[in-house]
Each structure stands twice: as structure tokens, then as C-alpha cells.
Amino acid sequence: MFRIVCAIGLSCLSATVAYGQSPQFCRNSFAPGEKIETRFMGINYALLMHALAEKYCGAEPAPMGPKFLGHLKRQGCGPETEIYRDVEMSISRLEGANLKQLAQGGEPGLSLSERQAQDWAASASKELGGCERLIKLHNSEPESWQ
Questions:
Q1: What whole-number distance in Å separates Cα of residue 116 and Cα of residue 112?
Q2: How confident is the model over 29-77, as pLDDT tens digits?
């Protein structure tokens, strides 16, 4: 009888563990040894791709806030979270940047020429799949990027 009770208990425990999820940290900084949450790792690239599509590829300008901040809210990360604030700051920087500032990565000490900025944009857009792909991603919703 004891074995049956233990078997039932273990089977219930294993089912519970299988459905367990990692906590939603909603942040992008972690303490040493802490498990890293990966669901927002590519968001900075997605922001850059959105800006590059507009500033270099000619995509119709669209505000980044509703798309990216809305995605974070749907993931359970509201305005009080670290990731939300960081993305909000990145959006304000990118929306006000021109192509030269994008190429410099926000570094004011760099002094790239317009030609160098154009070369960077051409190279970056090619590495990211070309302007056609950037515009397609620019016009899509974050849920379809997977």
C-alpha cells in the first residue's frame, strides 16, 4: 500500500514539475549565477531593424512605442519593470536619431561621414536580410517574428 501511495505521489509531483514555468523577471540584468531569462534578448536588434527599415530602406514611419511596449505589456511586463523602461529609453533614442547616429550606435564621440553611415546601413541591412525583409518585419507584429 505504501508503494502505491508513493507512486501516485511521485507521478503527481512529476506532472507538476513538467508544467512549472520560470518566473517572469521582466528585467535584463541578473545576479551572478542567476538563470538568465531569454525571451527579450533580441528586442534591441528588433528596435534597430525597425529604425533601419525607416531611415535607410524607406519604410513608412510608424511609432515604435505601441508595437514594442505593447508587446512587453502583453508579456506581463508593465511600465514599472526594468525591461519596459529600458526599451522605452531605446525607443526615444532611436526615433529621434538619423542614419548617421544609428551608424554610430549612439556614441557621440564618433564622427562618421555621411558616406560611412550609408556604407554601414547598406552592410547592416544586407546582413539582416535586405531591405525587403526589414520592411516586411517593420510592418508586422512582434508575435509573428518567431
A1: 6
A2: 777 877 777 778 888 889 999 999 999 999 999 999 999 999 999 988 9
**CA gap 20, 46 in Å, rounded:** 29
**Angle ∠(88,101,85) on CA atoms, nearest 5:** 10
Find, among 12, 71, 63, 62, the residue nearest to 39 by Cα.
71
Q: How many CB atoms lie within 10 A of CB 144?
A: 8
CA distance 18 to 22: 11
Q: Which residues contact 25 (CB under 8 A, 6 or more apart)?
A: 37
Residue in this structure with the C-alpha cell 562618421, named with its chain if needed:
112
Q: How far apart are CA 72 and CA 87, in angstroms?
A: 9
Tell me which DSSP letter residue 144 carries.
G
CB atoms within 10 A of CB 84: 20
